[in-house]
Amino acid sequence: MDTQVITKMKIVKPAADVFEAIVDPEKIGGFWFSSSSERWGQGKTVVLRYDEYNAEGAIKVLELEENKKIVFSWGAEQSEGSLVTITLTELDDESTKIEVVESGLKEDDPDVVQKMMGQKEGWVYTLTCLKAYLENDINTLRASLIH
Questions:
Q1: To bridge 67 with a disulfide, which of 12, 15, 79, 146 should be the other Cys (CB 3.0-4.6 Å)?
Q2: Are the C-beta atoms of residues 105 and 118 closer than 8 Å to each other?
Q3: What is the pLDDT of residue 30?
Q4: Exposure string (b/e) for 46-77, b if CB count within 10 Å is 16 or more?
């Protein structure tokens, strides 16, 4: 059985701004990955890079509905692929609810709780960085966590 991690946050920006921050390779570096190989589009495989950790991975964009929804798979290179659905809901002209649902974690995995906590922590941090970037033009939070 699949287990899901769900993370939500309110961002005081229109959905179009939130959407663009994620799919635009020039903007994603302000809050999440160092770089994105190209603009995200349905059916594309996009390489995401963290220069700080000398790491990169590919995602497959499965669905893209402008300003509303992004669905992608990732982690397949470690044989632990999961599905991420990002939904944007405009609350009014100036604010958006972003919801991230990550599924594909296996309930029978002995490490499932640890993995779920790690993914939840990662999404809360990513959305916090996105909020700071879009609302206050702060781009220094990205990749600041120390393990």
A1: 15
A2: no
A3: 93
A4: bebbeeeeeeeeebebeebeeeeebbbbbbee
For β-strands 2-11 and 35-36, DSSP reports them as: unpaired
Residue with tokens 């649902």: 101
pTM of the model: 0.91
125, with CB counted inside 10 A (0-12, 13-18, 19+), is middle
Looking at CATH, the fold of the domain delimited by 2-136 is given as Alpha-D-Glucose-1,6-Bisphosphate; Chain A, domain 4 (3.30.530)
The pLDDT value given to residue 49? 93
Mean pLDDT of 23-45: 94
Instruction: Name the one residue in this structure whose structure tokens are 């033009």.
Output: 137
